[in-house]
């Protein structure tokens, strides 16, 4: 993961830059599963205003910009404070992402699907090709969440209401890739 540093009001020495890199090692460890993603980098912006140093750390992670800004009397103090706050913010986002998008979604959908009973009887001869009927709730989710849900459930398709457009969509798997059908009402 690349570290990009910028400074305004003073020059960043090699010592300061290596100290910052060392302090951000905890962040890299927290992101070990995500480090291989293309384009992931941490942006560090130093600013000296009078006797105070300000450090702004920023990173784009899981579709969100995580930004932390700290102020201190010396450059090493601001690095310590900002790196600790940044590590906490990254861990918080990582835990939120794990708990809300993987385990909880899988358990909720499966529990709801098991509890619901079919509305129709398939005893008629004209419907003998249909093996079973399940009734599930139509969820309103973003496209990213629908992809995650499909992966978790390992289904061939997923029908949902798109949170951004409000339209009914169907996501399906075809030859290792995904397709999206947008229904018009």
CATH-wise, what's the superfamily of the largest domain? Ribosome hibernation promotion factor-like
The CATH architecture category of the largest domain equals 2-Layer Sandwich
- Strand numbers in spatial order across the main sheet: 1-2-3-4
The main sheet comes to: 4 strands, mixed
| SS strand fraction | 25-35%
Question: Distance between the terminal alpha carbons, to the nearest Å?
Answer: 45 Å
Task: Give an overview in words.
Strand 6 (157-162) and strand 7 form a beta hairpin. The radius of gyration is 24 Å and the shape is elongated. It has a four-stranded mixed beta sheet, covered by helices on one side. Strands 5-6-7-8 form a four-stranded mixed beta sheet. 13% of the residues are buried. The protein has 185 residues and is of the alpha/beta class. It has two domains: 2-100, 2-Layer Sandwich (Double Stranded RNA Binding Domain), CATH 3.30.160; 109-182, SHC Adaptor Protein. It is built from four helices and eight strands; from the N terminus they run E-H-H-E-E-E-H-E-H-E-E-E. It is 37% helix and 30% strand. The chain has helices at residues 14-23, 25-30, 75-115, 143-153, and strands at residues 2-8, 41-49, 52-61, 64-72, 140-141, 157-162, 168-174, 177-182.
């Amino acid at each position: 993961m690349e570290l990009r540093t910028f400074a305004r009001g003073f020059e960043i020495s090699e010592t300061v830059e290596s100290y910052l890199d060392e302090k951000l090692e905890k962040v890299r460890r927290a992101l070990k599963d995500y480090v291989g993603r293309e384009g992931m980098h941490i942006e560090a912006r130093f600013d000296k205003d009078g006797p105070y140093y300000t450090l702004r750390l920023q990173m784009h992670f899981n579709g969100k910009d995580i930004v932390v800004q700290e102020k201190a009397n010396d450059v090493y103090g601001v690095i310590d404070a900002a790196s600790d706050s940044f590590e906490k913010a990254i861990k918080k986002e990582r835990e939120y992402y794990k708990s809300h998008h993987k385990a909880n979604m899988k358990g909720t959908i499966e529990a709801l699907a098991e509890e619901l009973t079919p509305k129709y009887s398939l005893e008629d001869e004209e419907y003998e090709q249909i093996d079973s009927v399940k009734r599930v709730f139509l969820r309103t989710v973003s496209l990213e969440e629908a992809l995650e849900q499909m992966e978790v459930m390992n289904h061939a398709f997923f029908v949902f209401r798109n949170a951004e457009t409000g339209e009914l969509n169907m996501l399906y798997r075809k030859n290792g890739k995904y397709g999206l059908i947008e229904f018009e009402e």
